[in-house]
């Protein structure tokens, strides 16, 4: 039989569960079943701002302090896995995922056309591609993968859509064929940063002791880091209305278990780093993205210790790229201030993938240094994300299960 009394001194971290529900009204627990997160650690915590008057007195001591406001903030630190943080990305990007494409071919109606002016995917069925958006990445599956033909599944970027039966795509040299249409499927969903705020009701279960809740939690920033020798890591930072103690679960009907997909690794999981659609030739040591909502903050009023509103701020997406230096290709882009899409894929062992894209970005302020004897020369570039003149967005994320 088991031993009792081993952990009566404290709640063990293995008994901590972070979960959330999407709020429809700010600061109000939604009547929904919450979703558990996976995490490596978290730092969500309440805090009070205390102030004391600088009174003149003869007691040789300070005056008593009073509470002027109360709030909460912190971060969820993560190892990236597919589907685990998609709602958090909505809050981070002030937007929502597009409806998932579920395009299935019927006999002979989808064909691949190789041409100099841009590879095409065509259909003989009216409005077959009506829900595909120019600029998004799609995953095409179900090809026969015959020798010399198209691979069984592949990603391409939709450069344009002349009509609802034609897609002009890039990212792979297609082989002209009409595969067995019934086997071909096209999947994809994307999110671009926008201005529609999405908040979460976050709760922290502390074993059998109870819960701490964080209503009105708004993602104010975060990061995603892919580095040689490590799995993809990241964090999402939150500003919350307040921290409260609770003895009952805020979720309706219990919390849904966290997804169990594999963590994305730095070898097979890092794919297809491109600048303006062309694969980068340099070997990559690390690639890091930073999201910051400048001006996002909780605001307070008289007669309320907790926040009465949160401002969305303005999203800035920056980062760094560390490359082994072999030539001046990337340096020349810095000197010319050339802006173009910078994109890469994060793929798990099942084939589920994200495509992360700085839509209109530049390589800035390189540091090309010799770090010591017997070492490779490394060029470290800052990544500068800018609003795209076509889409109006700075960052895009595509997903395909």
Describe, in plain words, how this protein is organized in 3D.
By secondary structure, this protein is mainly beta. 4% of the residues lie in helices and 46% in strands. It is built from 2 helices and 26 strands. The strands form 2 sheets. It has a 24-stranded antiparallel beta sheet that branches. A two-stranded antiparallel ribbon has the order 20-21. The mean pLDDT is 91.
Low-confidence stretches: none
Biggest sheet character? 24 strands, antiparallel
Whole-number mean pLDDT: 91
Overall SS class: mainly beta
How far apart the termini lie comes to: 43 Å
Helical coverage, percent range: under 10%
Shape: globular
Radius of gyration (Å) = 25 Å
Reading the helices and strands in chain order gives EEEEEHEEEEEEEEEEEEEEEEEHEEEE
Number of DSSP helical runs: 2
Proportion of strand residues? over 45%
Q: How many beta-strand segments?
A: 26
């Amino acid at each position: 039989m088991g031993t009792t009394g081993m952990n009566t001194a404290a709640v063990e971290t293995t008994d901590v569960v972070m979960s959330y529900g999407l709020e429809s009204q700010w600061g109000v627990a939604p009547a929904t079943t919450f979703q558990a997160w996976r995490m490596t650690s978290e730092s969500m915590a309440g805090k009070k701002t205390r102030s004391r008057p600088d009174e003149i007195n003869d007691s040789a001591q300070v005056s008593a302090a009073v509470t002027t406001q109360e709030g909460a903030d912190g971060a969820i630190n993560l190892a990236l896995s597919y589907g685990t943080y998609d709602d958090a990305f909505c809050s981070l990007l002030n937007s929502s995922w597009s409806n998932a494409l579920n395009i299935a071919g019927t006999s002979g109606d989808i064909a691949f056309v190789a041409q100099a002016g841009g590879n095409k995917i065509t259909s003989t069925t009216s409005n077959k591609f009506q829900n595909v958006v120019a600029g998004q990445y799609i995953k095409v599956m179900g090809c026969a993968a015959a020798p010399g033909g198209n691979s069984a599944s592949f990603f391409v970027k939709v450069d344009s859509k002349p009509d609802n039966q034609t897609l002009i795509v890039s990212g792979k040299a297609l082989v002209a064929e009409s595969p067995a249409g019934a086997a071909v499927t096209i999947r994809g969903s994307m999110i671009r940063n926008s201005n529609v705020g999405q908040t979460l009701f976050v709760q922290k279960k502390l074993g059998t002791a109870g819960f701490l809740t964080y209503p009105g939690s708004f993602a104010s920033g975060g990061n995603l880091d892919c580095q040689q020798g490590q799995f993809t890591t990241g964090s999402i930072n939150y500003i919350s209305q307040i921290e409260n103690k609770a003895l009952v679960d805020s979720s309706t009907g219990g919390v849904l278990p966290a997804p169990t997909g594999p963590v994305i690794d730095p070898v097979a999981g890092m794919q297809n780093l491109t600048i303006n659609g062309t694969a980068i030739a340099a070997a990559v040591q690390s690639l890091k993205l930073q999201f910051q909502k400048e001006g996002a903050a909780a605001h307070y009023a008289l007669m309320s210790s907790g926040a009465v509103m949160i401002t969305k701020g303005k999203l800035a997406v920056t980062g760094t790229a560390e490359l082994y230096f072999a030539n001046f290709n990337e340096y020349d882009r810095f000197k010319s201030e050339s802006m173009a899409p910078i994109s890469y894929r994060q793929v798990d062992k099942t084939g589920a993938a994200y495509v992360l894209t700085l839509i209109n970005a530049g390589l800035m302020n390189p540091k090309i240094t010799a770090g010591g004897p017997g070492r490779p020369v490394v060029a470290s570039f800052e990544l500068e994300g800018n609003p795209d003149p076509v889409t109006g967005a700075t960052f895009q994320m595509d997903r395909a299960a």
